[in-house]
Amino acid sequence: MYKISEFSKLSQVSVKTLRYYDQLDLLKPAHTDKFTGYRYYSADQMFQLHRILAFKELGFSLEQIRRMMGENIPLDQIRGMFRMKQSEIQSLLDKEQARLARIKERLSYIEKEGKDMASLDVVLKEMDEQLVLSYRQKASLKQIPELFGQVDDYLGSFGLSSLTQMVIWHGCDECEDDIDMEVARVLPHEIPGRSPFTVKRLPKVPMMATLIHHCRTTSPCTASTELAIWIERNGYRMVENEPRREICIPQEASVDPEVYVAEVQIAVERA
Questions:
Q1: Looking at the domain 2-73, which fold is it?
Q2: d(CA 197, CA 194)
Q3: In the chain, where are the structural domains located?
Q4: Distance CA 166, CA 181 (A)
Q5: DSSP element (H, E) containing 167
Q6: Could you report the per-residue pLDDT of 61-118, keeping only the tens digit for each?
Q7: Sign of the dihedral through C-alpha 129, 212, 219, 150
Q8: DSSP state of 119
Q9: Per-residue confidence at 168, pLDDT binned at 50, 70, 90?
């Protein structure tokens, strides 16, 4: 048996809290000396205490916990409750992380206000027709590697690999996280398509404004915004219904994996 002070140290729960749990009939001492009033706890009561703390972490009130402790809920059911809570918290964390990324992105855009775009190394060039295998999906940015993984698995069945990687951005009408995008690989020759993969030819574009940019996968990138500003300030306009493209440029294996280089491409015409 352990004195309440000793039990408190072992469990890392304050003496005040243990006394409060006693008053609520939530965790009664195994023995109370009728002469001194000293409370004593058994080692087995540590498991009861951990159950109480576990239920508190799940968001239950002490009154609810008192009733649940009387029901002696099976361990497997408690595990299931924790898995559900874990999933709920992870979902909240993911949403907040996405929100934080959007805040950083907006701040980056604000910091670009008034920046001189004349120094941008924008190149105007003609793009030939391109044969691609693509996979169009509404997804978040963090899902792009997974989408490419599916495309590459399909290509692997034809013995194809290390082909030029491209993202075609179709836009987003009413969404925050899910964007209408198309991941694609440029093909050297025709192969059969199979749902959800499509083999098609991207049309020839007489004039494409392009900008090579370096970005980190963990932070927002403003290359498309910078290119859009350059287009407007230099007397051009975007070609209607021609989605923005982004070509990934392969890097050496020694380069930081979180840094990527890509060429953003926007079809333009004289305004």
A1: Multidrug-efflux Transporter Regulator; Chain: A; Domain 2 (1.10.1660)
A2: 5
A3: 2-73, 117-270
A4: 11
A5: strand 165-171
A6: 888 888 888 777 787 887 787 788 888 888 888 888 777 776 776 666 566 555 555 5
A7: positive
A8: G
A9: very high
